[in-house]
Specification:
alpha+beta, 2 domains, eight-stranded mixed beta sheet, 5 helices, 10 strands
Length: about 210
């Protein structure tokens, strides 16, 4: 599930957040604009990863680089070269498609993952895979496609010998956290960035087990 990141100048983004996400999210977005950002780092073991479900008119699985045009039609605001860079770096895109049309997708990286929101790389240990940039088309919202895409990712990386999956979400994105919890992900740390002018400090604070 994707977080809501409005476009426009700072004032336009602030008004959009206040209208759609409420005062709590507005306060955190204001801090974000001022240089402080943080996210939950979530994880789940792959030992009990579910099997990907098929059996209907949906095709759920990996989207190869040859199908980049289908992905760009699904997310027309994406930069073609940036998507190609992901493929060249070995990142894999998993998607739910109906009649060839992409309705939901999520990326996976295993050799280091760049987190745009924090402006930093998330180090990955051997056996870890990072899921990122999940998105579902407006026409497919409410169809529970994101969990099916996630299940396909979990099954694929479990079969490849990986042991843990990670993803990151801002704490105020409660719908995304609930969706990730249904797929077995739990917060394990707070990762963040403090920026004052050119100075930047990145941090990671483990969370107590729950």
């Amino acid at each position: 599930m994707s977080a809501f990141y409005p476009t426009g100048n700072a004032l336009q983004r602030a008004i959009a957040v206040l209208r759609t996400a409420g005062p709590r999210s507005f306060a955190w977005r204001l801090l974000s604009e001022c240089g402080y950002r943080r996210m939950f780092l979530l994880a789940r073991d792959l030992a009990d990863a579910p099997m990907a479900r098929q059996g209907d008119d949906l095709d759920v699985g990996e989207l190869p680089p040859a199908d980049i045009e289908r992905y760009l039609a699904f997310r027309p605001a994406s930069d073609r070269e940036r998507i190609m860079q992901r493929f060249r770096a070995g990142h894999r895109c998993f998607a739910a498609r109906r009649n060839g049309v992409v309705l939901s997708a999520c990326w996976a990286a295993t050799r280091g993952a760049w987190v745009d929101f924090l402006g930093s790389e998330l180090p990955l240990s051997p056996g870890e895979v990072y899921f990122y940039d999940a998105f579902t088309a407006d026409v497919a919202r409410g169809m529970q496609l994101a969990p099916r895409v996630c299940a396909a990712q979990l099954a694929a990386y479990r079969a490849a010998g990986f042991t843990r999956a990670l993803r990151a979400t801002v704490p105020e994105n409660e719908p995304a956290l609930r969706a990730h919890a249904k797929s077995g992900f739990r917060p394990i740390a707070i990762v963040g960035r403090v920026r004052i002018g050119p100075w930047r400090h990145h941090f990671r604070r483990p969370l107590a087990p729950t």
